[in-house]
Amino acid sequence: MLQSDEKIFIAVITTTFLMIILIIAVVLAILKYQNRTRKHLLEVQDLKNIYQQEILKAQLEMQEQTFQTISQEIHDNIGQILSLIRLNISTIKTEENSPSEHKVITSKELLDQAIEDLRDLSKRLNTEYVSRQGLAELLRFQLNLIQKTGLYETTLEVHGEERPLDAEKKLIIFRIAQEALNNVLKHAQAKDISVLLMYMSVKIILSIKDDGKGFSPEGAQKSLGLQNMAHRAGLIGASFTLQSKPGEGTLAQLIVATE
Amino acid sequence: MSIYQILYLFLLTTSLAICFYSYPSFEQNQSLKVFPILLSTSVTTELIVNVLRYMYGYAISDYQFIYHLYIPLEYTLLAYYFSLNNNKPQVRKLILLTIPLFILCSLLISILLISFKEHPGLNFNLSGILLISWCLITLFSIPPNLTITIFRLPIFWICTGILLFHVGIFFFNNLYSQLLSQNPDLAQSLHRLTFKTLNYILYICFSLAFLCSNQMKKSSLPL
Fold this sequence. Notes:
Largest sheet of chain B: none
Shape of chain A: elongated
Low-confidence stretches of chain A: none
Strand content of chain A: 5-15%
Distance between the termini of chain B: 49 Å
Largest sheet of chain A: 5 strands, mixed
CATH topology of the domain at 139-259 in chain A: Heat Shock Protein 90
Helix content of chain B: over 70%
Number of domains of chain B: 1
CATH class of the domain at 139-259 in chain A: Alpha Beta
Number of helices of chain B: 7
Oligomer: heterodimer
Radius of gyration of chain B: 18 Å
Number of strands of chain B: 0
Largest interface: A-B, 26 and 22 residues
CATH superfamily of the domain at 139-259 in chain A: Histidine kinase-like ATPase, C-terminal domain
Strand order of the largest sheet of chain A: 1-2-3-5-4
CATH architecture of the domain at 139-259 in chain A: 2-Layer Sandwich
Strand content of chain B: under 5%
Shape of chain B: globular
Mean pLDDT of chain A: 86
Low-confidence stretches of chain B: none
Structural class of chain A: alpha+beta
């Protein structure tokens, strides 16, 4: 009898033990499923990100090609025509101190200004020119153009030793800086614009600061220009931040990892 | 007919009704189409058995042959279902290969080891071991679905139902054989109770699976 009780006891224990194993197996299967779902979700998000980056890259390439075409057109066609016009005007013979002579001189000066502005514009748009220059040089060139208007005071500070950058990366950094500076000119109503370029051991920090009217960053999040800058930064694995408060100016900062 | 038997037939028939009701949603999950056949066969088998037992007064041994025929059919359909739900071709082939082998083994067991007049316990246990294996393999390889949780997937409830049913039966048999020698009456009534309860769980799980399939179809309808 006792032996039989023991057998029943063993049977109950074995059954319970095996049932527990079954429950553990089902729980493990659920956990594994959740883990796989999480991994799958990450994979899908990665694919989406890659897809978006590819689209953005294609858009930027197309934009650069358009810039290049416009730049060449300005340099080779419009520039040449203006130079010819200037040459023709120079050959016009007028009486000294006559109103006609004043008009010709003014026209020559205006043409010189137009030719110079077009050259600058051509340089700014020319991808090859951008890729040949250093980043600090490009920023200096851009700030000089702004300074020339006489409406703004600009400063550029470069810290650290300038290192050669991948041409594509440099182009994207420069285009982001151009966009940020354009935003300052269009919306900030600033007087001082200061740019700080810091070369650190593993990263480059580019800060563009103005003393303009500022804005509430929450309200500006949907701005296409800001989204573009953030997307472009993402394309080179950089982070783009914007700090601003109404009445306190704006600080745009781009941090690019170099290693 | 006991209340347990009536409840069992009610759940089985309800499960079949839900299965037919959800049938349009099986277009999205073709493997579920084996269940109307399986449940129709189960209902038919139970009806025949009950008619023979209660209307014509057949002894238990006189209608056991029906279960000897039913078990290979049930295994074939469930194994086919699991083969359709497995991504690995080797596992799929293995499952399909066991179908003719099981039918052959089951027939040999019925003819050589136990007669058609006895309860096909051995056939049932063999089918149980194989189905538990396929259930575990399937449970661990359910493809991820980003829109719904595992508890809303029909495959989860089908695997859970079959696992609980067969593991319960398989291991209760172990206890039953020990208890039978000591207290046959208790062993018999406990066996009936366990068997019926596990059947309730199985058909409730199947019904849940069909409702989940229906819900999946509704949630994926175009707006």
